[in-house]
Amino acid sequence: MKSYKITESEKPLVEINHETPIPVGKQVLVKTIACGVCHSDIHIHDGFFDGGDGNKIPSRLQDNLTMGHEVYGELVSVGEEVSNVEIGKKYVIYPWIGCGDCDQCNNGMEHYCSPFTAQNLGVNVDGGYSDYVLVKDEKYLFDAGDTPDNLAGSYACRGLTAYSALKKTNQNNTSNKLAIIGAGGLGVLALKIAKSAFNIQPLVIDIDEQKLNLAKELGASAVFNATHTNVVEEVSEFSNGGVHAVIDFVGSEQTLELGNKLFGLNKGCKYILVGLFGGKYSLTLPMMTFGARTIEGSYVGSLAEMHELMELVRANKIEPVKVNERDLSEVNKTLADLKNGNIEGLVCLKP
What we know:
The strands form four sheets. Strands 3, 7, 8, 9, 10, 17 and 18 form a seven-stranded mixed β-sheet that branches. A hairpin with a 7-residue loop joins strand 1 and strand 2 (14-17). The chain is 26% helix and 23% strand. The longest helix has 14 residues, at 185-198. It has two domains: 2-156 and 321-350, Alpha-Beta Complex (Quinone Oxidoreductase, Chain A, domain 1); 159-297, NAD(P)-binding Rossmann-like Domain (Rossmann fold). It is of the alpha/beta class. Belongs to the zinc-containing alcohol dehydrogenase family. Residues 26-139 form the Alcohol dehydrogenase-like N-terminal domain. Residues 185-313 form the Alcohol dehydrogenase-like C-terminal domain.
């Protein structure tokens, strides 16, 4: 089988040919049909997250890693203890796999397992930039119904991340009271899921007019360019005095500075931080208390939330979005294009 592996941070991935693994016990082997390329792959490839003030936070614990965690493929082989999945059927793989022994894993929160013990596909163990993916248990396989092959895998990360973040907001928000910062792949999926699952059409903020136009086409209640000097006033006017919740899919010093101004004088507001652009941010502490405000990090989603999301997907309640397809051999160009902001919406690689 062929895989593209990190051999050194920020260097091109290297094509490696090696033996196809044979599943044993509860393991299953999936032949990759498509693997989404996620913005977090850039940080994994770089080897660090920006901690601000020149500090670098390691983003992975090993080299010789096959990235790719948004995997959709055909089940081709199973271990002797597997009985509830069907060889030849296509599945989305839930990639946020824990050790199975810690308190988080035992409480249904495998995605919170320690990075030193987690077995996340494409992060801690080999993932989907490959012909085949070995998965440790059949319970991580999900039927995607008639979802397009090129989109299905993205529900395991970007779709799930958007869904979990939306659940963390006050779901009684009206469309003009929920703001999304960032109109990339995550923002696009969040728009669709917000409308389908929560009957909300958020307003969207970005610095790229092309992405804002796409967000408007996909159902945003309004779009705003963050480069405008009066963007806070524009949002305040549209939202009748400020929003009640912000989901930040960028996660930079600049977006937090902007996003926390969008609440106006409203109290009880929630800021859901998802993006990993990085940096540091200072808070005016009395305003957090007087405003009864919350800043909450949101990291992917639980196995239970994946079940909830995929029920919506199979029921065709989430309208598909366009996905750019590229050959797996274009992985290095694709990572560079994504890093430089040259990809509109979602992109996947196909072996």
